Amino acid sequence: MLASPGTAVDSHCPYCALQCGMSLTRTRADGAPPLEVRPRDFPTNRGGLCQKGWTSAAVLGVSDRLVTPLVRGTSGELEPTSWDVALDLVASRLAALAAEHGPEAVAVFGGGGLTNEKAYALGKFARTVLRTPNIDYNGRFCMASAAAGMNRSFGIDRGLPFPLSDVGGAQAVLLLGSNVAETMPPAVQHLAGARAAGGLVVVDPRRSATARLVGDPSTGAAERPASAQPGEGVHLAPVPGTDLAVLLGLLHVVLAEGLADRTYLDERTSGFDDVARSVAGWWPERVEAVSGVPIGELRRVARLLAAAAPVHGGAGAYVLTGRGVEQSTQGTATVTAAINLALALGLPGRVGSGYGAITGQGNGQGGREHGQKADQLPGYRKIDDPAAREHVAGVWGVDPETLPGPGMPAVQLLRSLGAPTGEQARAGGPVRPRALLVHGSNLVVSAPDASKVIGRLKSLDLLVVCDFVPSETALLADVVLPVTQWAEEEGTMTSLEGRVIRRRAVVAPPGEARSELWVLAELARRLGAPQSLAFPTDPAAVFDELARASAGGPADYSGLSHARLDADEASSGPGLFWPVPATPADGSGTQVTGVTRTSDTAGHPGTPRLFLERFATPDGRARMVAVDHVGPSDDVRPGAPIYLVTGRVLQHYQSGAQTHRVAELERLVAEPYIELHPVLGSRIGVADGARVRLTSSRGRVEATARWTDAVRPDTVFMPFHWSGIGSVNQATTDATDPISGMPEFKVCAVDLTPVPDS
Ligand code: SF4
């Protein structure tokens, strides 16, 4: 039931993983927007919001909001219809395709913005009703390499295994490939301690808004913000795709100068000798030759980090990575190198120090824990683990033998779409998906090598999109199902710190928009799911089932419920960090995921900090793994001599499906642009403000040129929030990391030419 008009309701921002705390107030009695949004004091944002958060209520009332199901008619246009007609059509076509080609002919693509409850229900629906292994989600584009690296080294993946507020007390922070000053501005306040101590190190080929916080003289004193103090840190601007070499060089210096924490390495890690051998050849001169990072700067940063480490009496240090270094064919290796450096300095598993990955999407953390990932079951369990299959099948009331195995990671899944043709058809081989259900993703804009993805989506026998606005992907669909969005629904999200928080309904959904939970329940019924295979539509009931399914897994939510989260919040508790196991009946406590817990009659208090006593590996030690720098898959060469890096702007979020519909944001940044250095612009004859064409071996993009010395002369930057001719993902590569399956969005080789006057 909705709160009465004028009553402020605590909830969270619909956008990024910071999940800033908001207070939402509806004024109308009929349940419709508008909604007043106010920031509140929550640990991640401490009363701050960015422009996206302040204007988030506008997304609820957009003029082209989807309010009725749409089905592509004989005219070729999407036409309004009833839920019964749309759902009957979807169910009958899914059933027919599965009957003809097998269950693998149906695939599901989820999203990192879905609530925990929806992500859980989607995974269960795919594996029990559709019985397809082919489910993955857009988190593969954003978190997979950090997850793979953390799982390998620590035995568990929680983006930040500590509260974000801990970072505020650190003396040094090494921030690699994360532009928080633009993507999540309220997070900048957590860098205050490092900035004050002169210990903020930003690694980014571009002098981003975050790099400008540093105001380092070596990277442009003219850019120093008025508020900045001298010596707030260092900006390293390596050649795109060489961050891994920089990390190997930093560890080389730490070891060569005797700065490592030898006691910690002996007591808490394994694999050090291999790693030490692997970095021995990465002397600073070689790192400079590969990355362009000056020898002196490399040494300065290694010493600065070491001085902040507890072993040298420092106040603490963090190594943090973001998409800039993770969206790479060597993303997992880069994360591993970052973890190796942190381990050598004795940081992870210590209060006030550590390694973490800054998750981007709103529920990027929870989205990968509850079963919509190709290789996972709920509780962040591995789908090929027999014990995990047994447990989850028991909760679902199905035979574990009927659960499919691991599916294809997102890029591979997208490459496989559509009926086989030519040689593929003659050769036979695995069944290719001919139907795709998309929930919470706008693949046309956000997938790499996007023009090929568009072609494959068009080749499908059936494309069904659940969304609340007609995204570019929805406009290609055969059936569009209108669903609820943030302030219209109850549920939970999990922040970048692993903090489980409540999302609350404050306004009524418009028209006939319904929750995906209801859509999945209706499809399950139409597809003949037995009554014993329940798909509850009440988010609290779904959460209770999710909690049971997660019990004993790495991401254990079994001690949580909506009621407990509500009660916790009512007593000023800002969410609970997983794992939160149910207190054992015998009161003996449990030991899971590297943290010893004791029984607690009030319920388990949650686990803000992981690894304080042991890592979640079988022997309790963090694994150091030797890695090496290879370079990007699509390196510069004659014909493609310029590096392209992509990223976000403050005013837009992901594919822009929401933020392009907010007038205040669109007014500020309405069009795509390409940043290039004046030296490059002059050389190729592209003036500031002129139209410029960017070409890769995949596709062609055009946008307005913006001259700036914030990019290297060998590199251009383009944000990825636009479609059509301004869609940079037409040019990016779909080459993937061999371990995580994450695509290399962040670097590829392009050519740049003026657009001739028409
Ligand atoms: Fe906070 Fe992110 Fe929302 Fe901005 S977009 S208000 S940083 S949660």
UniProtKB/TrEMBL annotation:
Domain 4Fe-4S Mo/W bis-MGD-type residues, every copy: 6-64
SMART domains: Molybdop_Fe4S4
Biased composition annotated in UniProt, kind: Polar residues: 588-601
Highest taxon, organism lineage: Bacteria
Keywords for the protein's UniProt record, in alphabetical order: 4Fe-4S, Iron, Iron-sulfur, Metal-binding
The protein's name: Molybdopterin oxidoreductase family protein
One Pfam family from the record: Molybdop_Fe4S4
Ranges for region Disordered: 212-235, 585-608
Keyword set includes 4Fe-4S: yes
InterPro entries per UniProt: Asp_de-COase-like_dom_sf (IPR009010), MoPterin_dinucl-bd_dom (IPR006657), Mopterin_OxRdtase (IPR006656), Mopterin_OxRdtase_4Fe-4S_dom (IPR006963), Prok_molybdopt-oxidoreductase (IPR050123)
